[in-house]
Recover the amino acids of this structure.
């Protein structure tokens, strides 16, 4: 099941010209600088931007091609806008019901109660939108979009208007959406940290064109892509909780390249989690260090090396089949004799648990 | 206290104002909606035409309406050829004149209200499966409610006070085209200040009360929409 899209939209000074195919499951992030056409692409998918010779196929169903064009209200999608978009003349619950009332009963797969429960807004139902905080409003807007049982959920920087603590409040809800409801999500963002938390799949856009698409782990570590060269460049690892060290309050996690240990013991065995390891926190050795405070050491193979300015290099590693990044000095790389194919030990000084 | 002929004039006036307001709301809503949304480059011409009755002396408007509605005018001639009467000096003619005379007072508040809503709420409604007509009734109309209240009351109140146009095309036929402002004029002409006072105070209070109602209603509405 894929989503196939081809659009060409001319706006004088700006042209969006994209052709892409993305999986119709999980979270796909459209990432790129402001003005690169992310929002225009999302609006075109929703049918809000008219593009008559465009093509859009979602899971085998044609939403538009040269001859047909489904109007926005005929497309089975949910849309969360960047800024507050609740109907001020309706209470929260009337806002939530607005969409659901217009969807045939036979297509209801998400109940209103489920959406209310998932977004934690049960206590807000009788309130007027004007009396809600920014985070609460955005949660209501997400619940309203989810309640129409969409085949595709489109989100245009739903967190952009919120301060960092509000973002933290909403991120878990968005994560739970595609896990609990299995609705594919396309999520516009210009913040790599949001992408690292949410995305399974990434579409990089620049100046109205698709630069590359791929799964998140590959895209973050491709040395021919800008993300791997960011000063905050980091790799993402999907891991499963396998046990706890009760004495030291640690949690053990397994991934295909080995075992990780992180602090805390709040997670249950069997939970799937996402870990983030920054390139600058990974150092390399040829022998496994024993007298060290670093807990996370695992074998890896050098995949590629690229210069990073005049003094540093970025090394792409493979631990099992999981790509990792390491940023070290050119001098170290030379002294260790690093070259593609060489086995090394990667030491991760810090591993962040993405929640 | 109030004479029978004055009461008749009052009823004619209210009937005229009510009909004019209803017609303007029905015809003006789509026009104002279109003007608020279109990107047509010559929209300003239409806006100027709609605003013209604001600045034009009512006698000028009345004069041309008289020509158009009279037996030799296009509309009056059409009526005559269809076996009817020319429209000048009839209640129907008065309604037509009033629709032009009060047009900007209804169209402009509606256009402002529609423009103030913007595109976003409509896009939101579209992504929630509402068809264009559905969006108009469930989003545009409720959100433009203050504009409708203003338009209806201003249109009604402005028609109540109509004088110049009526004088030109309505004449002074009791029970058909004699409205309050004309009746007041008659009383003053006949030095009957007592009756002129009764009608004038009535008109003054009525207009004032309606405007109070508009501002009070719209203020209450704004509290909900900060």
């Amino acid at each position: 099941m894929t989503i196939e899209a081809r659009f060409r939209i001319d706006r004088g000074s700006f042209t969006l010209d994209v052709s892409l195919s993305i999986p119709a499951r999980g979270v796909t992030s459209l990432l790129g600088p402001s003005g690169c056409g992310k929002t225009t692409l999302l609006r075109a998918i929703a049918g809000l931007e008219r593009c008559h010779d465009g093509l859009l196929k979602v899971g085998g169903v044609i939403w538009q091609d040269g001859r047909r064009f489904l109007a926005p209200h005929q497309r089975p999608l949910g849309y969360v806008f960047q800024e507050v978009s609740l109907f001020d003349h309706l209470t929260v619950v009337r806002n939530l019901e607005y969409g659901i009332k217009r969807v045939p009963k036979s297509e209801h797969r998400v109940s209103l109660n489920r959406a209310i429960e998932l977004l934690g807004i049960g206590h807000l139902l009788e309130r007027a939108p004007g009396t809600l905080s920014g985070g609460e409003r955005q949660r209501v807007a997400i619940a309203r979009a989810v309640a129409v049982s969409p085949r595709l959920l489109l989100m245009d920087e739903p967190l952009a208007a919120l301060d960092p603590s509000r973002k933290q409040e909403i991120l878990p809800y968005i994560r739970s959406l595609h896990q609990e409801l299995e609705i594919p999500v396309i999520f516009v963002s210009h913040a790599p940290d949001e992408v690292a938390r949410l995305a399974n799949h990434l579409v990089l856009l620049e100046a109205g064109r698709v630069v590359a698409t791929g799964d998140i782990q590959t895209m973050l570590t491709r040395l021919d892509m800008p993300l791997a060269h960011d000063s905050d460049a980091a790799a993402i690892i999907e891991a499963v909780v396998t046990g706890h060290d009760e004495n030291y309050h640690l949690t053990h996690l397994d991934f295909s390249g080995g075992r990780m240990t992180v602090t805390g013991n709040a997670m249950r065995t069997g939970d799937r989690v996402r870990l983030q390891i920054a390139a600058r926190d990974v150092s390399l050795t040829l022998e496994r260090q024993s007298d060290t405070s670093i807990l996370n050491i695992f074998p890896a193979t050098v995949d590629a090396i690229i210069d990073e300015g005049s003094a540093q290099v970025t090394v792409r590693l493979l631990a099992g089949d999981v790509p990792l990044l390491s940023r070290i000095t050119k001098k170290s790389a030379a002294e260790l004799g690093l070259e593609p194919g060489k086995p090394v030990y990667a030491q991760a000084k810090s591993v962040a648990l993405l929640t | 206290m109030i004479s029978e002929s004055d009461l008749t004039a009052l009823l004619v006036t209210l009937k005229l104002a009510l009909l004019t307001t209803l017609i303007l709301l029905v015809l003006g809503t789509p026009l104002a909606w279109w003007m608020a949304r279109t990107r047509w480059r010559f929209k300003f011409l239409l806006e100027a035409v709609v605003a013209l009755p604001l600045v034009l002396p009512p006698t000028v408007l009345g004069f041309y309406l008289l020509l158009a509605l009279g037996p030799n005018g296009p509309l009056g001639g059409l009526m005559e050829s269809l076996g009817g009467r020319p429209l000048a000096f009839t209640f129907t003619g008065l309604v037509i004149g009033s629709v032009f005379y009060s047009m900007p007072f209804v169209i402009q508040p509606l256009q402002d209200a529609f423009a103030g809503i913007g595109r976003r709420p409509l896009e939101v409604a579209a992504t929630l499966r509402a068809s264009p007509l559905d969006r108009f009734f469930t989003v545009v109309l409720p959100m433009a409610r203050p504009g409708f209240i203003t338009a209806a009351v201003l249109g009604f109140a402005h028609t109540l006070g109509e004088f110049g146009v009526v004088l030109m095309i309505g004449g002074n036929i009791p029970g058909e085209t004699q409205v309050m402002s004309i009746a007041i004029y008659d009383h003053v002409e006949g030095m009957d200040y007592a009756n002129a006072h009764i009608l004038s105070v009535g008109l003054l209070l009525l207009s004032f009360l309606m405007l109070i109602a508009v501002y009070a209603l719209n203020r209450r509405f704004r509290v909900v929409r900060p």
User: Anything to note?
Assistant: Residues 4-116+144-221 of chain B form a domain with the MetI-like fold fold (CATH 1.10.3720.10). Confidence is low (pLDDT under 50) at residues 222-226 of chain B. The interface with chain A takes residues 120-121, 123-132, 134, 138-139, 142-143, 145, 224-226 of chain B (CB under 8 Å).
